[in-house]
Amino acid sequence: MTRVVLAPDSFKGTITAVDAAVALAEGWASVEPTAEFVHRPMADGGEGTVDAFQAAVAGAVRMPVTVDGPAGVSIDTAWLLLPPTEDAPGGTAVVDLASTSGIELLDGLRPWDADTTGLGQAIAAALDHGVSRLVVGIGSSASTDGGTGMLTALGARFLDAAGVPVPRGARGLSEITSVDLTRLRTAPEVRVLTDVTNPLTGPRGAAAVFGPQKGLRDADDIARVDEALGRLAARLGLDPTQPGAGAAGGTGAALVRWGGVLAPGAAEVAELIRLPAAIDAADIVITGEGSYDGQSGDGKVPSFLADLAATAGVRAMLAAGRITDDSDTSLFAASTSLTDLAGSAEAALTEPPRWLREAGAALARATTS
Question: In whole angstroms, what is the distance from residue 66 CA to residue 284 CA?
């Protein structure tokens, strides 16, 4: 009997990591009905972080909350309460930016007005509950607001020359002349999950690298926001060159100022959901993501899982929405692309569960070929 650990990331915008793991297991079982499956859906701090913890931690409870979303309207979402432990007697809260202030919550990009207020409101709700520890995933941001929306929701004030709060989002950054942190809530232990190491400012900074993804495409606009982020860092007493400070449009820097510690997302999630122990007892580990490409080796879930499996002497396999020519699949004993199985990207995107089941079956057959 083969013991298979299923640890895919979400296939962004198409299927969650939880549902992807289920589909892969169904496909494998169609070839090997006696196989035993251990579900450990993964995340790296972005979309699906809350879901990954809920699937892996017994006793985890979703806590509903309504927040101000990045589109300027209220959204119903949730943070996750993990059971108390000796070192976190009030429990641990898992909050992700993707489900509170994420880009997937927008119908259209709002480069100047989207912000991180919703993330801060969800964190505040967890603090009100009395948690001892926070785990905050900050992938999939919709904004480049330097985390000012989040800090405002936690009690900070960002003021213009007249002492009036500046507008939300990147629009207000250049108007900030003073920062009032006297009412900023006290942080518990905070672990910040991110899969990027970019600084806050400069050619690899939040505005230059990630701003265009959020709608900041004009060079002058990017330069304006980059300069404003630099001034914000000075007012907050932050080092803008710190690796990871530029994550989520500068939210990484804001969380560091609040007291958070930046941590590699995939590694931190894996440890917290006890993935290494599951892999140690497995024969196969299957991972995956929507697009496995040349950047997937830079701290992303598939490459991290391949390294973990190699250390344990376990075969790693990959199922991805697409596998590009510049990617390295030599890390895996077998790999398959939903696009190839379906015949086109459009077909794969239309029915991801179906093609993930096909992928699971194909990988199972590869073990006996």
Answer: 40
Same CATH fold assignment for domains 3-41+274-366 and 49-266? no
Scored b (16 or more CB within 10 A) or e, 161-196 reads eeeeebebbbbbbbbbeebebeebbeebebbbbbbb
Read out DSSP for 354-369?
Answer: HHHHHHHHHHHHHTT-
- Residues contacting 256, CB < 8 A, separation 6+: 192, 238, 242, 245, 262
Q: Dump pLDDT digits (tens) for 285-333.
A: 999 999 998 765 556 799 999 999 999 999 999 999 999 988 889 999 9
How distant is the alpha carbon of residue 71 from its chain centre?
A: 19
Q: Quote the pLDDT of residue 123.
A: 98
- CATH fold of 49-266 reads Glycerate kinase, domain 2 (3.90.1510)
Q: What is the pTM of this model?
A: 0.88
Rounded to whole angstroms, what are the CA distances from 13 to 10, 83, 104, 142, 301?
8, 29, 7, 14, 16
User: How far is the C-alpha of 74 from the C-alpha of 327, rounded, in Å?
Assistant: 40
Kindly report the backbone phi and psi dihedral angles of residue 254, in degrees, each rounded to the nearest multiple of 5, phi listed first. Answer: -65, -40
Q: Quote the tokens at residue 42.
A: 């993964």
* Dihedral, CA of residue 55, residue 18, residue 357 and residue 328, to nearest 10: -110
Give residue 272's pLDDT.
83
SS3 92: strand
**Nearest Cα residue to 135 out of 228, 49, 240:** 49
Name every residue whose Cβ is closer than 8 Å to that of residue 304 and which is 6 or more positions away in sequence: 44, 266, 267, 270
Alpha carbons 25 and 75: distance in angstroms, whole number: 33
CA distance 137 to 154: 17
Fold of 3-41+274-366: Rossmann fold (3.40.50)
Chain CA centroid to CA 332, Å: 23
The structural domains of the chain, with segments of one domain joined by +, span: 3-41+274-366, 49-266
9: left (phi over 0), alpha (psi -120 to 50) or beta: beta
